[in-house]
Every structure is written in structure tokens, then in C-alpha cells.
Design goal:
Helix content: 25-40%
Shape: globular
Structural class: alpha/beta
Strand order of the largest sheet: 5-4-6-7-3-10-11-12
Strand content: 15-25%
Number of helices: 8
Length: 269
């Protein structure tokens, strides 16, 4: 049946058979130093790297993609916390213009966890009787609101122009039971933002490095959550050891995305 003449709310029906509509909306979270930045750098095409981690570009400089000029790093780590207000605007740091004219294919947000600290500083500066040491409930609420709005804007803008988005986050300290046992560990992006933002993403991958082996997990395990994927067949591939090195290269996000676009089903790695 042809639905091309039908519009709802002024919007035509998508052609779901077209791979042109496919994009990556991904969160990579996990241990500090496990290789999240390196993995994110393998995303497709020209990358706009929104950097909030101090010295975060150090691990990028050794990568061929950076050396070839395919990664533009915008170091916002030295900016005042008021930069958060730009993230909360519809244009989101002025990003829309450069997505619209196809300057970039992917946006990397590095990292949501350090940006959350900036959100807290802004929140307590505008909340009565609040400080970084004692943010108060109102301060935390504003912090989470700033965080959620920024991520919503990034996801919305990249979706609008069919660009990829990769959000990097660190794992939190975990939730303990009354006996001190770890019962849940998730990404540190602030309160209810975990649920609200994760719903908007198609890929959530957890990463760790144990005894020199880097592994990517596509499905929740143990106390680690959330993880999900519409690209990877998690019934056959719940996790994978990632053997990419800056010296020798290897497969990464762009390769997996191409395989998924060429396939009629989910892929395995």
C-alpha cells in the first residue's frame, strides 16, 4: 500500500525499508580508562567532539582518524559552568548550523558525567541556600533538569538531520543493600535522566577492561544495567572482546553500522 499522500500532523510516513533512515544513537558507559574514547572515535564519518573531560583529547591524538583531520575537538572543559545554558538552548552550543550543512556526520559528547558536574555548579549558583557541598534537593533537581535538556537537544538535533550521536558516560558508585553488597550499577548522568534519556537511545553499551582485555556488553548482566541494541543480535552476541588498537586498527562502530545497513536483520560480531 502506498502511504505517500498521507500526512499526520504535517508529517509524511517514513520509508522504513530505506537504510537512509538508519542512524546510531549510542551511549557508551563503563569504567574509567577502559577505552570508551577510542571506541567512540570509530564512529562514522567526520566527528564533532564536544569535550568536557580535562585532558580528554590526549588519547585521541594517537588515533589515525584524528591525525587525518576527521575529528574536530571542541574543548569546553575550561569554560565556565555557564556553558551549560548554551546546551539547554534549542540550537545546543550552536550545533544545528553545522549538522544542517553536513559539516559533521557524528557528534560525540564526552563525557556526560563531567558535564553533570558543570550542571551542578550552575544549579547551586541559582538555588537559594545551595552549595556544591550541600546542593539541596532543589539544586539536584535543577542539575538533573539541565542535564536532561542538553541530552534531549543533542538527540533531537542529530535525529532531525539524520546524524549519529555517541554519548560517553562513566559508571556510578553503585547501589548497596543493607549488608553492603552491590546490587545495581548504572551510568552516572543524574537521577531520572538515566531512564528518560536511555529510552531515547537505540544503543546502550557497557565497556570494561579486565586483565588487558576490553569487552563490550550489549545486554544487562550481573548488577550492570542498562544495555540494549537494535543493531546487534543479543541472542547470539551478548558481548564481544574488542581487539582494536591505535597501531593496528581493527573493526569499530562504523564497520558494524555499515554491516547493519547492508543486512536485513540484526548482526553478530
Amino acid at each position: 500500500m502506498d502511504f505517500s499522500d498521507i500526512k499526520l500532523g504535517g508529517v509524511s510516513a517514513d520509508d522504513t525499508k530505506s537504510s537512509d533512515n538508519k542512524r546510531i544513537s549510542l551511549m557508551i558507559w563503563g569504567q574509567a580508562g577502559c577505552g570508551k574514547t577510542t571506541l567512540a572515535s570509530t564512529a562514522p564519518g567526520k566527528i564533532c567532539w564536544l569535550l568536557f573531560d580535562p585532558n580528554g583529547s590526549d588519547s585521541l591524538k594517537q588515533l589515525k582518524k584524528y591525525q587525518d583531520g576527521d575529528i574536530a575537538v571542541f574543548d569546553m572543559s575550561k569554560q565556565n559552568y555557564s556553558i551549560v545554558m548554551q546546551g539547554c538552548m534549542d540550537n545546543c552550543f550552536g550545533l544545528e548550523t553545522y549538522l544542517k550543512d553536513n559539516t559533521f556526520d557524528t557528534v560525540v559528547f564526552d563525557s556526560a558525567t563531567t558535564y553533570l558536574d558543570m550542571c551542578l555548579k550552575l544549579a547551586v549558583s541559582t538555588t537559594k541556600n545551595a552549595s556544591v557541598e550541600v546542593p539541596t534537593q532543589a539544586g539536584y533537581s535543577r542539575r538533573n533538569s539541565y542535564m536532561k535538556q542538553t541530552l534531549n537537544n543533542l538527540i533531537r538535533l542529530t535525529n532531525k538531520y539524520n546524524k549519529h550521536i555517541v554519548i560517553i558516560g562513566h559508571e556510578d558508585n553503585g547501589q548497596m543493600d543493607d549488608l553492603g553488597n552491590l546490587i545495581k550499577q548504572t551510568v552516572m548522568i543524574g537521577g531520572s535522566s538515566n531512564t528518560a534519556v536511555c529510552i531515547m537511545l537505540s544503543e546502550i553499551w557497557y565497556m570494561n577492561n579486565t586483565a588487558g582485555k576490553r569487552k563490550i556488553f550489549f545486554e544487562p548482566f550481573g548488577v550492570k544495567m542498562p544495555m540494549k541494541s537494535r543493531m546487534i543480535d543479543t541472542t547470539k552476541c551478548r558481548n564481544v572482546e574488542w581487539k582494536f588498537t591505535p597501531e593496528n586498527g581493527g573493526e569499530g562502530i562504523e564497520d558494524w553500522f555499515k554491516r547493519w545497513c547492508e543486512s536485513s536483520t540484526k548482526i553478530t560480531l
